[in-house]
Amino acid sequence: xxxxxxxxxxxxxxxxxxxxxxxxxxxxxxxxxxxxxxxxxxxxxxxxxxxxxxxxxxxxxxxxxxxxxxxxxxxxxxxxxxxxxxxxxxxxxxxxxxxxxxxxxxxxxxxxxxxxxxxxxxxxxxxxxxxxxxxxxxxxxxxx
Length: 144
Known about the structure:
The chain is an alpha+beta fold. The chain has helices spanning 6-17, 23-73; strands spanning 84-88, 95-103, 111-119, 127-133. Strand 3 (111-119) and strand 4 (127-133) form a beta hairpin. It is rod-shaped, with a radius of gyration of 36 Å.
């Protein structure tokens, strides 16, 4: 029989210790990675919902500004015909828009317009905006 030297035995022992990962180490790494991925997925879901709400709020603000600009530019005599509700079903902001016109007491001829915007998405609150319009002064070109 052939005897192996001490250095050869030591080299074999060291080689056995460096063979690679065992099953327990691999399972542990998979569990740690899974926990990290679940945490990232939750954070991604939360940020996606927040981004959707911000987008809806921006669209609501744009729709309100657009409608207020229309009401401000409409001739004073046609304001009463603007009253009523309209349902908008197109994206990015499906909503119901209601306009009410009320004469302000006191004989000043002023009218208060109330604009209510109710989003179809119930997670976003409705907005109520007010605009006061008065009959403008008549311009006399001869007097100027």
